[in-house]
Design brief:
Shape: rod-shaped
Low-confidence stretches: 1-7, 9-41, 78-97
Number of domains: 3
Strand content: under 5%
Distance between the termini: 122 Å
Order of helices and strands: HHHHHHHHHHHHH
Number of strands: 0
Length: 379
């Protein structure tokens, strides 16, 4: 059958494809139609366009899904990093000592102040060492009844105490070393790291360690002066009594008695001091010595008066007086070593004060070693 004899195909405005018609049952399966339907079915160009469009749409959808997944992954990573930062930032308590990002500036400023104060503390330590040396000089001079040495120790020690007090007071004001309480520690921890607060406290404690020095030195000076007052009284007695004895050997008994009364007055002054010392310390050796010396004076006084009464003749009364003098002399120490014992006894508190000064000196030295590691910070 030739296609030239067939009427022209009429294109439907509906544009339904033959396959579409079959799909909807427009033609029965056993129906026979024109050759064109059997051999050359109509293929619409839109099929390729739609297929191509479908492929591009699929690619775009796939790409969109991939981009969306990538975006979510990136967002999740950012959130994870952000969360880690938030956790790190909030891991420091507002009152925690581990907040370098908040306290570093204040810590540096305080550290500079403390370093300057520690340099001043080394000078303070030098002044305390001078005071310690004078405390030892005082004790040595006292044991030797050395007035010149004592006067030098008093002078240099007083100057050292004044220097210590002045420097310590200035440092305390400079660093505001007020009484250190838990409340103050907590308040400072709001601004500084705990390590810096602890160092601040350590410096203030070092400054405070010299506070007892002035009182200890004053007590030491006063105690040594009292001891020297007793020693001077005994010395004055002994010198005057020696003069009295010299007059008696020359037969000038009235003169000897006058000098002996003078010697006894000096001894009474020493005895008064010893009595007052006995209220605060043990001065039993001193009291015993003074008592025996006074007994010797009484025995000599009786002898010399008896010699005056007998007009120089040896009577029973004179003989009895001589025996009493011999017995009294036997009770006296053979040499002046007892004076060292007495001074040591009287210097008990003085020695304790000297130990207090040495202890304070050691505390400051140890504090400086802890603060500097044994190295003085540069200026």
């Amino acid at each position: 059958m030739s296609s030239s004899n067939q009427p022209p195909r009429q294109r439907s405005g509906v544009g339904r494809r033959p396959l579409d018609a079959l799909a909807v049952g427009a033609l029965p399966f056993d129906a026979s139609g024109p050759e064109e339907f059997e051999l050359e079915p109509q293929v619409d160009d839109n099929v390729f366009e739609e297929a191509d469009h479908g492929r591009h749409s699929g690619l775009r959808a796939w790409g969109t899904r991939m981009l969306t997944r990538a975006a979510w992954l990136g967002l999740a990573a950012l959130l994870a990093l952000g969360s880690a930062g938030i956790v790190a930032a909030t891991s420091y308590s507002p009152l925690s000592s581990t907040r370098p990002e908040l306290t570093s500036g204040a810590d540096q400023a305080l550290s500079d102040r403390l370093d300057a104060a520690i340099r001043e503390l080394t000078l303070l330590d030098d002044e305390v060492i001078v005071l310690g040396d004078q405390a030892r000089n005082l004790l040595a001079s006292l044991s030797q009844v050395n007035h010149i040495g004592l006067d030098a120790a008093y002078r240099d020690g007083d100057a050292a105490v004044a220097d210590v007090d002045t420097r310590a007071a200035a440092l305390s004001v400079q660093l505001e070393c007020k009484p250190w309480t838990n409340a103050r520690d907590s308040e400072l921890a709001k601004t500084y790291s705990q390590g810096m607060v602890d160092r601040y406290h350590q410096v203030c404690l070092a400054i405070d360690s010299v506070a007892p020095l002035a009182a200890a030195w004053a007590s030491m000076v006063n105690g040594s002066k009292v001891a020297m007052q007793v020693a001077d009284g005994i010395d004055a007695h002994d010198r005057t009594a020696a003069d009295a004895l010299q007059s008696a050997t020359q037969g000038r008994y009235p003169e000897a008695l006058a000098k002996l009364d003078e010697a006894s007055a000096s001894l009474a002054d020493a005895q008064l001091v010893a009595t007052n010392l006995a209220l605060i310390s043990d001065v039993s050796t001193l009291n015993e010595w003074l008592s025996r010396t006074s007994g010797m004076d009484d025995a000599l006084r009786v002898l010399w008066q008896t010699m005056i009464d007998s007009k120089g003749r040896i009577t029973k009364q004179v003989t009895a007086a001589l025996k009493a003098v011999t017995a009294a002399k036997a009770l006296l120490p053979a040499n002046s070593d007892v004076l060292q014992i007495v001074l040591h006894e009287m210097a008990g508190n003085v020695t304790s004060d000297g130990i207090s000064i040495q202890t304070a000196m050691g505390k400051l030295g140890s504090a400086l070693t802890d603060l500097t590691g044994g190295t003085v910070l540069g200026g």
